[in-house]
What we know:
Layout: H1 3-7, H2 10-23, E1 26-31, E2 36-41, E3 46-49, H3 59-63, H4 76-88, E4 92-96, E5 100-109, E6 112-122, H5 126-174, H6 180-192, E7 200-205, E8 211-218, E9 229-231, H7 235-243, H8 257-301, H9 308-320, H10 327-338, H11 349-352, H12 360-367, H13 369-377, H14 387-392, H15 413-427, H16 439-448, H17 456-467
Antiparallel strand pairs: 1-2, 1-6, 2-3, 4-5, 5-6, 7-8, 8-9
Amino acid sequence: MDYLALLSETEQKKLLVNFSLMTDSSIFLLNENKELIFSIQAHNAQEKDNKSEIDIVDRDDANKGKGSISFSPNQKDCQRLLKDLYEQKVPFSCSYGHNYSLAGEPLIFHNNFLGVLLFAYPTSSTSIFTSQMKFLRQYLKNLFVCHYEMDNLSEEVVYNYEEFSLLTEISQLLGGILEESKICQIVIEKIQKTIPAKSIAVLLKEEKEDYFYLVAAKGLKAKRLIPEKINTQQGICGWITKIDQSILINTGQDFTSRNLKLIELIATQVGFSLGNIRLSKEREEILLGILDSLVATIEAKDPYSSGHSKRVSYYTQALCENLNLSEEVKKELVISALLHDIGKIGVPEDVLLKPGKLTPEEWKIIKNHPKRGLMIVKNINSFHNVITGIYSHHERYDGEGYPDNLKGEEIPLAGRIIAIADTFDALTTKRPYRKAFTVTQAFSIMAKNQGTQFDPHLLDIFLSCVKKGKIKKIN
């Protein structure tokens, strides 16, 4: 902040003019380079800036009482006083005969030398000058302190706003991300825009083992790459782990305690996001365990269907990889495919394993398994988004399917995709009543039902992927 500029403002100049009138003094403001900023002459208390002509009355004439006292910092007496002021930076005053005196007040704030105020006043006014000078000195001190605090407060407000904006932005960016490396990379980029860090690395602790591993980094040279594994008891990482708090180490980079505080806030925010990811993974592992148990329950009833649910899930996933779907939707479709026959748990074994043709009543029982599947999974919160595939995978594109006779794109995407995967595996797998068809034979059968049983666009993609080897027949 330019503190001398404060003295050039109207209110401060008025104060100095009044001071000049009361003490009959001339006032000169000079900066740290001895350059004149402005002056106020005693004989008319008129302000002049450094471009104005400065009235000069020879000291001898002044001593003889000719006119009012008017000085310039160029005069010899002033130059001597200024030399002492700028070298020693302490207040000076001296008298030159009975007619006038000079006084110099160094302007110092927070150990920074700003410049000087030089006064020339009648010696006869020394008493009033000295008393008024005490008030002026205190006023200047208060003025500088006040503006310094206001300036710092403004900086603090701006910094806090920027800090809040950064944390809000990071929070919004991390909200829907479930990948550790992506989260850490975003955070690194945001930190580098805010803090003067040449290089940043994010390390996470392995959950089941005692070491840190590198997740993301920026600005690290090849020869200084962080090892893949770092012992939690060694080095800076070990130190931080032991004392359980942030530290600021002097490495030659211009980091401050404020920077450290911001990083702590960001680290806390990232910690929550990473914690949520790990909780999500734990829930997913539990979910997959439940799925394996459910699938095993289905396949235990029908030896011929062993592996069918997992194969349908594989074909579904492979087809999804060639569609423009989000990762979340892909995951839901794969789970839905894995559980598509869960409703067969309620089908009697004599019906499920019957080698011959089913009676109308038995066929009715079989056709009810999508509804049973829905009833089984609908109360499991984690399975809400997979219900449509379970319920609609026997619908037909021409509207002749079951359970609701949906037609075309009325059938949910999950149902249309699983229908293709389910039929392909059923055709290429041995059944109690027939041998397995070859892939070529399965293609021919499915192609004949394109647009009737199957979504024509999805079937084209599936068959093309199998022909190109993107989807492989598995046993």
